Predict the 3D structure of the following.
Amino acid sequence: MISRYLPLTSWLGVYNRHTLASDMIAAVIVTIMLIPQSLAYAMLAGLPPEIGLYASILPLLAYTLFGSSRTLSVGPVAVISLMTAAAVGRLGLTNTSEYIAAAVVLALLSGIILLLMGIFKLGLLANFLSHPVISGFITASGLLIAASQLQHLLGISASGHNLLDMLLALASNLQHTNLFTLSIGGGALLFLFWSRKGLTPLLTRCGLAAHIATLVSKTAPILAVITTIAVVWAGDLTESGVRVVGIIPAGLPGFALPSFNSELWQQLLVSAGFISLVGFVESVSVAQTLAAKRRQRIEPNQELIGLGAANIGSALAGGFPVTGGFSRSVVNFDAGAQTPAAGAFTALGIALAALFLTPLMYYLPQATLAATIIVAVLSLIDLGALKRTWQYSRSDFSAMLATILLTLIQGVELGIIAGVSLSLLLFLYRTSKPHSAVVGRVPNSEHFRNIDRHQVETSSKLMTLRIDESLYFANARHLEDRIYALIVQQPQIKHFVLMCPAVNLIDASALESLEAINHRLHDSGVTFHLSEVKGPVMDRLKQSDFLEQLTGQVFLSQFDAWQALGK
Amino acid sequence: MISRYLPLTSWLGVYNRHTLASDMIAAVIVTIMLIPQSLAYAMLAGLPPEIGLYASILPLLAYTLFGSSRTLSVGPVAVISLMTAAAVGRLGLTNTSEYIAAAVVLALLSGIILLLMGIFKLGLLANFLSHPVISGFITASGLLIAASQLQHLLGISASGHNLLDMLLALASNLQHTNLFTLSIGGGALLFLFWSRKGLTPLLTRCGLAAHIATLVSKTAPILAVITTIAVVWAGDLTESGVRVVGIIPAGLPGFALPSFNSELWQQLLVSAGFISLVGFVESVSVAQTLAAKRRQRIEPNQELIGLGAANIGSALAGGFPVTGGFSRSVVNFDAGAQTPAAGAFTALGIALAALFLTPLMYYLPQATLAATIIVAVLSLIDLGALKRTWQYSRSDFSAMLATILLTLIQGVELGIIAGVSLSLLLFLYRTSKPHSAVVGRVPNSEHFRNIDRHQVETSSKLMTLRIDESLYFANARHLEDRIYALIVQQPQIKHFVLMCPAVNLIDASALESLEAINHRLHDSGVTFHLSEVKGPVMDRLKQSDFLEQLTGQVFLSQFDAWQALGK
């Protein structure tokens, strides 16, 4: 039983020197990558840099204990940091410690929501977020994040609540651009862009094995950090207006229970729900991709518990909402992590950094962190998905486009709400007019085909409609309309057969519609029959008194119906 | 073209002396039935009685011009009157003329919403209201309405925002019961109850033809009205505290444009949307039932235009929201109405009543109107539907129960929202875990069946999963989980076939899931195939590059797949 809720029991028993070595090597590489990333995402969330480190220690340990993926790396990620900034920013808190406290409450609430979803097996709530909505949301978030970092790259102040505001604020402050800042930020940006494609081949040519070269190239951000720190320090550029991270308190976070303030909790509850859902969907998709590569499995409801524990851990250590990140998990996987212990060792690495490295980061330019963020999020922006979705399905495309536009214009939460509402509406719309065809018999066979497309035999007394969709509330009334329209056109019809080979469900609304059809056809002098009803659907119909009311019969096959009624 | 939007052109040409006579007879009977009903529903909506008459003239004329049902009778109905009372009551207006003005705006907004829905063919929005939600809502409304009328029956004042408040208020004021009022109200109530079953046989025994007797028994409310007016007048019971309708201004309503007050419009807009939807669903269902009896058709989008015109007409005449009512339409139908002209004649009848009969109603006891309402709404309460739905489907039952409880406790609008949200959630839940089965070959046949239920041949290299549901965002992730779980269990599998005979749709989310499955199976060393994909689904897949990425093939039949891969 304990292994049910503590997946680590499944690997701790077989832990050995080999897996230990693999995990430790992966941890070193991930730690080096995470130090600048943690600082940068804290900045994105509007928080002091050390909060990024605090959110990278306990969550990793908690996920190690409760998560079901062996290689997922949990911590601050770009989209969730943006959502945190939006949720806390809306409260209008000017005091930094109040702002931090609100971010901590947001992490705690997200943790509680995720944990409850896991316990009550509500992972299916994530199903509301369709792929086009998620994809559109992440693209729009990437654009918003990149735009929000341009001010740091230019050394000016320019913020806004939507993309247009941000760009207008940037344009109007452009004359205040600090050229030192721009040089450092632009240089870091170019180096990081180049490193994604160019560093691995260079390292290979320097004699590194291809695999090692790929991993080492992931540490490019730390190289940019070290170099730009050195430049600012050597050139005394803070005097020339280059903004730096400044004093980061050294040491580990203290444990503290987040403040309980019912008004604050209520204000943040809905945002915490959104953060939980988006974080869960993102994280599960990463975890599944990695697990499949080694024929491992992840358990979505256990993932909810793992992510819930991670967020509660983040809150207890004074951090902000976290989830499983794509790039960090891929690096962890590629670096050879075998078990979640790699996450625990990474936590140790970040803890050592928090203890000993923070003084070295005093001169770290904010522009370098902005460059790190921009390079990271540009990989999230997938405008090609718009084109692919347009080609595949206009209605999925419109849900995606609505999500992108609303997110850019109205912010992250309204963007999601618009996307989810639209995809539900469009799904109902698509199934509300299901494909159906009046069918006739293919001569000398037991097959029945659409009379508009095939040369088939028909009967003047019998009409058969094949319906190609489950019958439920969204299309029940359409079915009524369709049948009445058919009957009014052909007053000589005496028998009407509804052929149901693709009907997987008849809900109570559809049942009432069938009853109404039965009554009304009776009033019109027509007998109503069914054919080819699936077993589970028939079992369900037997629970009602519909079959007793039915004026006609239920035929096992349409051919039986034809033989009995069509002559 | 004009006949498209003016359905009356379809019957006006064939109008003759016979249809005129039929329509006029129906109009007389409906008018007699509607006079007390109109006064009563105005009282239910919290409005002065004459507003009920005003809402019964122009709407009938407007529907005659634009509606598509030949026998639907449009005017004030119980549930819409309750919703009007809830929507306007929430504004907290104490001034009667402001209250009336708000009800008029509500009618205008409903009319505009219905008209727009009709023009943009958005009748499908009504599909959101599943049968269990509508049925639960109407039952709960009936209970609320009946409870709200008990105060008038007892001659006390007792109001509340939900059922419990109302009953508690009644209980605490019970000692103020006016025995004269109770005698009149109770007498009317008993008479009306008895008349529904007992009046027709009595009239038949008195020599009336069965058909005529049924129609005459529908005029029982006017008998109750006349009798109780006489009793109050003769006994001078107003002196004893029996509350009467009092002075009703005689004359026709004046035309007036409703006041435009943007704050008021905004406050009422959402309520108007609910009223429009509920009114439309109710009305269409009545119209369809009656049309089927004569093999006629109604056109839902034209109905929206007809009901929209009726509500705008009501607003222009200073009335409140209206829709097609069940009992009044049935009486109109049974009395032999042949065309919508019967509605125009009824409008004339009500206009004559407003001009000449109002002084006679000074002594009409409110208790009589309350009795009329209670008898009318008790037929709306269908607790048996709870039992039937429970037997047929637990999830439809829970949507129904939630609608009933929330409507009783939190009011009409939250009740609908809860029901709609829950039915959507439950539908997604039901389709999020679609039925699927690993299948094997029935020996020596081309048929494939569930390996858990039948003796079938399987292959150690090939696994086939048959999925019995359309693939879309709500179940795409479940499919991924299911397939990974199967593959992890059976590491010797080399080929995986997804058999799709019941898949009517693959949306963009499901397409991405299929792509992810294809990639991940590839990473696990398994080739991914499809079989028995329907034509329209295949056409759609060809719009994407999925088929090029697919590591395996698409087989026309599962038997082809078996022959190619299973050996």
About this structure: The two ends of chain A are 65 Å apart (CA to CA). Chain A touches chain B through 77 residues (CB under 8 Å).
